[in-house]
Amino acid sequence: MQLKKALVAAIAMTLIWTVVPSRAADTILAELPNAAFWKMISDFSEPGGAFQLEIITSNEQSYQYVLPQLMANAKPGGVYLGVAPEQNFTYIAALQPKIAFIFDIRRDMMVEHLMYKAIFEMSADRADFVSNLFSRPRPAGLTADSSVDAIFRAFVNATADSKLAEEHLKTILNRLTSTHQFPMSQIDQERIRSIYLTFLREGVVNFSSSYASPGYSGLMTMTDLKGKNWSFLATKENYDRIRTMHQKNLIVPVVGDFAGPKALRAVGQYLKDHGAVVSVFYLLNVEDYIQSVWSAYSGNIASLPIDSSSTFIRWSPGSSTTLQSMNAFVRRR
Length: 333
Fold this sequence. Notes:
Elements: H1 2-24, H2 34-44, H3 67-73, E1 79-83, H4 87-95, E2 99-104, H5 107-122, H6 126-134, H7 148-156, H8 162-179, H9 186-202, H10 216-220, H11 236-247, E3 251-255, H12 263-273, E4 278-284, H13 294-302, E5 311-315, E6 321-325, H14 326-332
Parallel strand pairs: 1-2, 1-4, 2-3, 4-5
Antiparallel strand pairs: 5-6
Helix pairs in contact: 4-11, 5-6, 5-8, 5-9, 5-11, 6-7, 8-9
């Protein structure tokens, strides 16, 4: 009997030593200090590059189609990687990762995400967010629980207010440079101004300044194939998740080329150092543009910490959004 008890104790101790370290190894902070957040942007980013199309909002109309399957397969609490503008917030709201990094070869996209960060922080609810993003006075009757359709119907006829836009710009830049104390260059601040005033001019219905955009109201009221809207403005809960992550500096925009020498590898090393694993990488159709440097790109992907559940989200123009295994991609390279 004593031998049996000793054997059970030994097995239990073995399980403790094999299981606990794997959980303790994940040291991603629940909130990043302002200085650490800015250091990531500065240290991980590459010099900005160019893209042949002007992209300020998403033009992908099937981006929600994969979410039911993605939610069934992805592990909760992992790390999210993505590219481009606001569609990332919808994926992040659904997946609820510990931290998210959003890459783009254009520096303008990094500063656009900083603009979004400030607007989320200054907007208590979804109606405030739309008002602050588009510089339209908040229509009467909207509440924190209003439907996303009701919110955008109310803003369709709201009048653009350039004076309000100037007030918002002061608040946005003050929040970034004074409240957070990010040492932003004057050029980056001017780019935020230019991007923000584009939202003022365009409004919620159409967005001709961004290639093939269906407009913000269209993007936010799309659904999956069964009619469920997953957008980050679809529900109060979705919005609050993204706002909280921004308040905690947990959505980090990085200037980077997928085939570049620094950005992806720097983020990958940070995740390895903190015992974290990539759960989802939203690629959009970036791979179409980097065929000539595929070896560098595939090497960068192979440098990321992944497991059997790590998943790519891919989109092809004229086709649809699909999911593919990152593990299988690395094995085939």
